[in-house]
Batch of 3 targets.
Target 1
Amino acid sequence: MSKANNHTLESLIEGCINNEHAAQRAIYQIFAAKMFVICLRYGKTKMVAEELLQTGFVKVFKSIIHFRQEGSLEGWIRRVMVNTAIEYYRQSVKMMPTESLQEDLNRAGNEHSGLDQLALEDLLALIAGLPDGYRMVFNMYAIEGFSHKEIATKLGITEGGSKSQLSRARQLLQFAIKKRQEVEYARLEK
Amino acid sequence: MQDWKNNADLENGDDALNMHPLDQAFRRLLADAELAPDAHILDQMMGHLEEDDIEQKGPRSAQNQDAPVTPSLPASLTPVLKVRKMRRKLSFAAAIAGVLVVLAIGVREVSRPDSVVAVVTTTPVTPKALPENETATSRAADKEATSTAKPTENKGTATPNKTGADKTARLNGPANRITPKRKATSPVTGPQSTGDLAGTQRMKQAGVTEESKAGTLATSKAPAQASGLVVAKDLSPENDEIEKTGIAASSTQGAPLPKQKAGTVATDLPAAATGLTGLNREPEQNTRQIAKAVVAPGVSNAAGSKAGSEADPGRLSRAGKRRNRGLFKGLVDKLSATAQTISEDIVSQQDDKTVINIGVIAITTYK
């Protein structure tokens, strides 16, 4: 971000600290779209994603006084959204029984994903099609960058369980992507 | 690529290289993706924020006020406070009632007629054997002497000799005291006795070498009270060696008892036997040895006889009249003796009551 934007963000942060609704609206307008994608990734449905987005922004505005400006405001708001999704998951969704997978994880990495042909909504639909546990582990590990140990701590599962769920999520995603590609090819052949 | 977990930029590209291709593809496609939410989400969120502000502004506005806010107890404690106030009032009422009860008991004890209180008296009790002919007056004297000794009694006893005459004087005291009217009506004896006993004389009794308290007698006795005790002293001022005492003091003098011969004999003493030593003797001795006088040598008996005759001329005249009444002789004396006995009993009871009440009050106050 430029210095002007940084100055604007600082003033907006001050406005949010002073509980100014205009500043809050401005912050929301800036980061809502990106945060909504995150919420769509963690939420199974759009309604859940909207609830997560709303709850997450309320937390942001209430706890923005604790923002120490050591990192970016977007990264801080993103963490708040992820933590809100994790909390929502732990409160409402039970983890599915996991089974250890003894398959070669590297095998899936060698295949071509074919995601570049998919639109954002399709990608989000693929992720949303995963079971809750798989989706959580996949989002936290593949996109947010959490380690299996951290995932296990946050979700209250074992580290092995996190790994197996991640592998299972990958398999399901690849299967879904392949199936979607086949459907696309069939439509093009017609 | 952004390290969203640590909110920092990825510096080491190895992490991206070590990642699974599928993970890399998803991160690359979704990391910076944007999708605008519906507009109503913003409205709902702002509505929640405003509600939270309203909830928080109430306490904040109250805290910002300058006036100190008194902490209010919850409504659940209101009945407890009422009960505490009632208990406090009841405790006050109980304390007041207790004080009133104690006071009532004290007043009741004080007002009880049969209250028995031991009163310590320093007056020595004189056991004496009364002769047969001493009746009511002597008994009354005993009662007075053994119960309580009033200051007026001691004053009225005209004790010339402190050691030898105590017993007789105390016995004589009530006899003088119980006939106040008659004593008051004898105008002659008082002034005479006091005048004669102006405290310049010394009285010497038989067997007693102590100086008499003539001055005390003269100053303490009122004229009416002194009438019962006729002290006849006649000492010539120019002769100090001569100490003659003419005392006609007996417990029965002035008392109209028929068998009480002491008073009558004393009043009927001849002029030659005016000096009496009855103050340091027992009543019976007074009755028997009335006429015994210790007369210093060189002193004429005329002075003593004069003093004795001037002691109570009114009494003498009345006694003479009473004895000369023939059929009524003794009847009047009996009636008067009975009346005196009754009145003395009443007086003694009242005195007892007074003393008892004073004792009760003293004990109550001490408690």
Note: Residues 98-111 of chain A have pLDDT under 50 and may be disordered.
Target 2
Amino acid sequence: MNRRDLLKKSLCLAASTAGFGALSSRFSLAHAATMYSKSQRSLLGNDYRALVCVFLYGGNDSFNFIVPRDVSAHATYAATRGAVAVPRSELVPLTPTASGAAYGLHPGVETGAGTPPHPAMTALAGLFNQANSRVAIVANTGPLLHPTTKTQYQNESVALPPQLFSHDDQSAWWQTPTANSFDRIGWGGLLADRFGITNPNQNLAMTISTDGDNVFQTAEDVVPYFVSPWGVDRIGNIDPTWSEPTARRNALYQLLNGPLNNALERTYATGFKRTVSNYEQVITALQPSATTFDAIFGADDTIDDYLTRQLKMVARLISARDTLNMTRQIFFVGFGGFDTHDAQLANHPGLLAAIANGLTKFYQATQQMGIANQVTTFTASEFGRTLTNNGDGTDHGWGGHHLVIGGAVNGGRFYGRFPSLAASNSNPDDAGWGQIIPTTSVDQYAWTLARWYGLQDDADGRGLVFPNVTRFTDVSQNGTGSYHLGFLPAAT
Amino acid sequence: MPRMYRLFAAIAFALAGQANAQTVIFSASFEPPPGGPATDQDAMRFLTQATFGPTMSEFDRLNLIGIDAWLDEQFALPFSRHRPYLEAIAALPEDPEDPEANNVGQQTRNEAFFEHALHAPDQLRQRVAYALSQILVVSDQGGGLGGEPYALAHYYDLLGEHGFGNYRELLEQVTLSPVMGSYLSMLGNRKPDPVNNIRPDENYAREIMQLFSIGLVRLNPNGTEMDDPGQPGFQTLPTYDQETIRGFAHVFTGYTFSGCGVREFEYCSAWEHPERWVQPMAAPEGLWWGDTEYRVWHAYPENKQLLVYPGVSLPNGVLAGRPAPTVAGTGVSAQQDLEAALDNVFNHPNVGPFIGKQLIQRLVTSNPSPAYVGRVAAAFNNNGQGVRGDMRAVVRAILTDPEARGAPSGTTAPRGKLREPLLRMTQLWRAFGAVDASGRYNDWYVWWPGQYIPQSPLHARTVFNFYLPDFKPAGEVAAGGWVAPEFQIQTDGYVTNFSNVLDWMTWNYQGNPSQWADPDMTRLVIETERGLASNNATIDAFIERLNLLMMAGAMSPHMKSTLRTYLLTLPANGENGYRRVWEALWLIMVSPEYVIEK
């Protein structure tokens, strides 16, 4: 079933933000047949584990999602953000276990109208604030090739990720193992390529997406399985569940079964039959869960929010893990609309409420399945947005805050270092125009997730998948002092 | 405009229904032209290779004038450009019922593609432009090009306009295109700045060699990999090394959008200057701030190691550095270095077989014999009048080669290739004169192929196109050491979804009596076929017609009898007689014998 899908991409090096075109250590002139050969080792851990990537396309303005609540910190924030700032009184308080400045969540409703917070946001804050919290907030994360200071950025004295502030490219660096991966292969795809052998079922990919093609799951060999959130697609004309297609189906299978005198014809026919058997396998496996999660997410025909619809499908797929004979799965969920250059005050709150709604309900679903400790969901987005505004919205930024939710998460605290939110000329973290230099790299974030998923902390594991992560050490207050961030334990 | 099938041809097909598939229908009238097509089947094969799909009228014309004259005609036609189509859509007033219908975006390029594939008279040029777009790749998926549909349409037009010229000129046009400059970051690439640790970007340098001209390893003239005589066993020889990349990287410096002065080099953009996207890049030089220093952005002084190969004109492949000009008007320019570097690339012996083989793969077959590649490479090296890089000669050599016109010899490789999904769509719509009520091919799956169709023009995920030229699907193809690039996009999701797209495309026909048929979708015109299919006495003639039109006569007896048996179980007047037509079309279009074009 494993087929090649996607290809190496040439490095798209920065033009205007020049700096090094640092070559990935994996680059080789030789046209390697397989750069990422199959590992002889399985991933660590004897249980089922799943990673769920929730990618927020467009660049989420997370500086308005997680906002300082301390009076003077908020004043600084509000002064810089001007018209798009969230009033302090409307923030939903977060009470982290570790000491530190006070923060709050955006209420998930349009601010300044006296509307109470969206219940989903209250629920998300509650999940963060509870004892044994399962929500971690990772501050100001973004693609980096090296830890980068403002001075280094301005002098171009360290290599920078190419094409900063470009959607396509920054999306890629959020999903690939390094911030300049030559081959546009994602770290999820890479894990599937190397460790797909972990799964007893070799006919279904480790990687499944409810949002179609994505860089995160792009691999050299393993083709992700795409599932529509509305249900697994069949080839309608040969649908076996009713009578009209039967004769047509039989005719097609007579054609597929030959005699075929050409190797390409035979290869096509084999592949076609395998495609059909794969989707029938998944459809059958999903049948028992048709209404299992309706109480949490709502019935299918009542869901109009694309994120919730996808997460419900992911929950159903996870509930079928035993039937499908899978022990390690990586899911991708995509949700767009975050490029709030305009009308941010009107548009962003609903998006944030949708995130809170989807994530909290999905967590509930994993609890219902009794595997909350075995599923970790994390957000990602190509960039945060500018601290400054353009009148009624914000523009492409760089670092942004993200959430990790799951039963295994060391929650109820902040990880990494929050950046200064001061005005640009007095902000040591500001690359310019309010684009904040990340204080945590995606490498560190991803390695922490992969380490929990079962990637080994050695040269053949971490070293191969995340070669740049050793450039970054978590030296934040309460940091690990290591390459990972500590919001999840390692698999053993 | 619906295609009008010639009554003559229709009757001839009906009468020929029971005839042996190899019968030449028109042989009673005249001898086949000396350059072919020798048979009706080969006429259809030729049109499948040289156009976006055979039509009855093109079939008639080809039989009348022969392949050689047909090629002459096609080579003489100018390229029907795609950018004017976008401009025409932009000029339409907003539709109050559908405000986005006349917005121009990347989806409009897809419309333009189908409009030209279906109706442009310069079919061969359009087909070759499409093939070149899969070799000299740019994409709206990178380089910040997502918001620049006009720029990408212009790039496509460059491929079409120069695709029948000389490859050297085509390479230069591509190199100086700001679209390519953005995609592979030559635009704004600057000379070294050791103080700030800046060195020239190597992106374009790498790809112009690896993908656009010579590939990674030395090739024999027949496209097979050269064996290093100094090493035991079989060992390939690399064509270039890191030093060469650095050399070219230094050449490709100093260029940015046209219209910027030297002081604006680092910030030059096309913002509020859309015309800059459709003009070649320029290399500004001149007086710096304070009128004291003449600044250049091109790396002049360094010696640049370029390619080394037998017959290379640069001594040891080194392009000597020169002092940068310090005043205007010296006649010294970055362009001179660029031209010398492009000459160096163009004259490498790999270009003929490397590019030639890929064009064969796009037009004819995935696994051409080495001899076939050698003949095409020879045409690249010398068009017969001493000119190297003549694309007309190359295309003619590809299409008139005995291995294109008949069964391959000297190879055990499987014949043919997996038909690209886009080409299956254009074939269906051309064969049956597809019409859209709006006059535009703007069906939602044309606009947003997304998960349904794994290709659309200049939309590849990476510079490595939709598939690699040497992709080997697992199983007997890989085991035999053969390749089949198009299999790389035959993934579960796409196979499923594209099969459903084909269902919509075949079921949407003019005259569909169903209340569920959407009159706004593109519709096939299948009257002739309906006449044949809805009468049991002519069911074989119907199958033969589709066999010839869709499969160039290659349908096996097993497939014919399977179709026949199935169709006869369907009511003859189902859906007013149209049912058997779309049923046959869909089954054919997902069948292995059709999907593999031979």
Note: Chain B has a mean pLDDT of 92.
Target 3
Amino acid sequence: MNAELSTEAPGRTAPAIEIRNLSRRFGGNDALSDVSLTIPRGVVFGLVGTNGAGKTTLIRHVMGLLRAQSGSVAVFGLDPVSNPTAVLSRVGYLSELNELPEWMRVDELIRFTRPFYPNWDDSYARKLQEMFELDPRKRIHQLSKGQRARVGLVLALSYRAELLILDEPSSGLDPLVRRDILRAVIETIVHEGRTVLFSSHLLDEVERVADQVAIIHGGRILRHDALDALKSSYHRLVLHFDHAVTSPPATEGFFNWQGGDRHWSAYFHGAADEAARVTSQLDARLVDSTTPSLNEIFLALVGSRPSPEARA
Amino acid sequence: MNAAAFKSTAIYTWSRNRWALISLAAVYAVLLVNSLLVDSEVATFSGIGLLLLLAPTFAPAAILGTGNVATADLLSPESTFPKQFFHLPATPSQLVLPFMLYALVLSAIMWALSLAILDGKLIAIGTERSWLPIFSMSFMTLQQALAWTPVTNRIARLPQGIAPIVAYVVVLVAALNGTISAGAVVALSLMQFPLAYAVAVRGVARARCGLPESEMKASSSAAAAGPKASSRAMPELANPQHAMFWMERQMHRWVGKSGLIALVPAMLILIIVFTRLGGTADRDVEGLQTLGGITLTLLAITVILIGISTGLNVASFRPRMRSNESEAFQITSFLAALPLRADDFVWAKFKVGLANMLWVIGIALLVAIAVAYVSGLTDLWGARYESWIQAYGGMKAFARAFLPLAVILLFVLSITLSVMWIGLRGRGWTIAFGVACFLIVVAMLAALSLNRSRPGVISDWLPETLWGLAALKVVGLGVLILRTRSLHLLSEGRLATILGLWAATVAVIVGFCAICLPEGAVAPLTALCTGLVLAPVLGTVGAPLAMARNRVG
């Protein structure tokens, strides 16, 4: 057994994840640009972004599977690259790829994985197996994609990891498996002090379970806040201008204008009363103001920005 | 469409095999320049001469038969024809033709170069045996066609491969004995081309429409998935290291897929057996002994190649690797996320690689003893051993007899461990880089071998070159050790084991130089430097670093 595993886990007070000014380039492309994030213990953190936004690259840095080119990453106060065993023994990980050894049987895979984790809970593993209706005699290559995801989930949860990292876990899966994954996240939250980092582009799922959300696009964090605070800081406005306008006014706080002539809609970032005040200065009347969903905020934020390729 | 198919095939082949082709060209260039610079009488039965005659048969088949050269996995039930071509708007015959013609052109060029290097001599059989190139090209084309034909079970590959080999060996023996005329051999060989073409077209057509897939479903998907882990009861895994070793042993238990590298010595063994059964051996005892010697040399080369192949295979984190798969050596996300140190991963691989190679070496030794007995070499060796005892005494005679064997064994084990770094780097191009390095070393050795009786361009500066290389290697080793130690990637015990194996290999090589070579032929310092340079160690010490890089991009 590695010495690192037997010593008391360091950094009892450190945040679950602390990322400072992290940048990463692959060839000529910026995969991550000056990313800073702090994820405190005991929260469910949703990382949302389009395909290629940098979610998996960020998670691979957190797992110690990529070395920071600049900036730093700490998990429970430890560098995951130089302390892989100390960090990974406290992290449960389920990735979109879910590259389990195809030739093993489910029970063999569980028995293989168990010695790596001192906190492995056999009874919990059995309970999860029964809950997910997994046949222990079946080989991994005989399982459907959804069943493989469930096996991955059993492996990630059975040692009651302090930090559960789910990288696009429900991508391409049916609603039943997605439900199981969400149930697992909720189960993890129930255990006090445990943290979940949940990356997805299925925003309704994130909205259901996340306490905090970060929106990542083109390798940059566009917004990072508590979910409620994030949602309440955005407003979807319908405006009626006094006279026809050909292009919407470039006013601070407004973005993602749509419409024409005198009827326009836009998103506003700021307080609700501030939206009304600024609208009146634009020679326009505020017809309607609603709180958008996370999905709408995401589409408005990302849709109003050029893609990284276009910027290049 | 035909022109387009030829163009696409050329682009694909170059893109996929550029390093292999460049390396091949480099080897031939070195040998050609060497043969031009030095007016040497090439030993017609030398190992290099034989390699130059075998290469035009096997290299084009490996490169343009689209087989998996790096891992020598020749028993796959699937067609090795590149699947990307199946989507092109072309008939199977249009797809097959360019590959076959390019392979034949490459083979013809290699034959021409080999003959130029060997001054036109064909393995001591003279110019009257000029049927050999066409004979070998028809064999290559047929093997290529069979590799493109899918089968329902990987075991079916064995009779499919062995049947034509036996047929060709029978014809070869008959032709060498003069039972069949040269004209008949050429006619028989020419007849194989349309047959091979028809087989290839049918095979590619079947593979393209997934015809055997339904039959293959059960066997092939299981085969693709890898070994049957539960064929033996799973032991209780006490700790992570034990668990990892168990997994590696399950994934890489079978080295038989590399076994087809032994095709050439197997063919020669068949020839020896046929010759013995046919009574020719009684007439030409010396000829049979010479053939036995060549077979044993090739057996040793084969074991070294299997060692390299095993090292590469075991380095992978997948039980099977497909050709040209750049991700084949990348650690899987599941394994990368396990809380295990880089050197624990590597150590499990080392142990499995060594265990596999000890089996291979054991079997090779038994085969070698059988070959030596059947070919009458044991009588020759017995007499020679007696004379050594008379000349040098019992101890020295024993050392002279067994040190070469010890050199080969330790070299095989060291190189098996050492080449793992190539795979552990986790990048497809490192395979090509490794192959290129290996071929260049072969070329250098070949050049030396051809010049060994006369001083040449390379051998003039050999001692000084060896001193420099040894110094470089020792410095490089020191740097590597410091680096792995500073990153806590190698424990004292493991480092001591690696250095111990290296020291043993060096000591045996030095002992070989001191005892087996004529007195004064090699200076002690040169012998030591030879040992330091030849005994592989850098890859073994560097493997944990490569593993760490594989895991952490």
Note: The CA atoms of residues 173 and 274 of chain B lie 8 Å apart.
